[in-house]
Amino acid sequence: MGEIWVSCPICRKKVIYDVRNECRPFCSEDCRKKDWAHWMTESYVMDADDPVRETDNVVPTVDCD
């Protein structure tokens, strides 16, 4: 099985999605903390009026370029 590469949700750097990367899906502890800070300051919000759909549980396609 090949390596799975994903983009860091914060800086978009390509990183290997693997159990050895303790920060996954982030590239670093810094990006992981930035994401946490966005949640804690309510920069990220979830729309409470948006009902959960069956398609919400679909695994996203990974770009392996």
Structure, explained:
With 65 residues, this protein is an alpha+beta fold. It has a domain at 5-45: Erythroid Transcription Factor GATA-1, subunit A (Erythroid Transcription Factor GATA-1, Chain A, 2-Layer Sandwich). It has one helix spanning 29-40, and strands at 5-7, 14-16. The longest helix is centred in the middle third of the chain and has 12 residues, at 29-40. The model has no long low-confidence stretch (mean pLDDT 83).
List keywords for this structure.
two-stranded antiparallel ribbon; flat; DNA gyrase inhibitor YacG; Erythroid Transcription Factor GATA-1, Chain A; alpha+beta; 65 residues; DNA topoisomerase type II (double strand cut, ATP-hydrolyzing) inhibitor activity
Q: Which helices and strands occur, and which strands form pairs?
A:
Blueprint: E1 5-7, E2 14-16, H1 29-40
Antiparallel strand pairs: 1-2
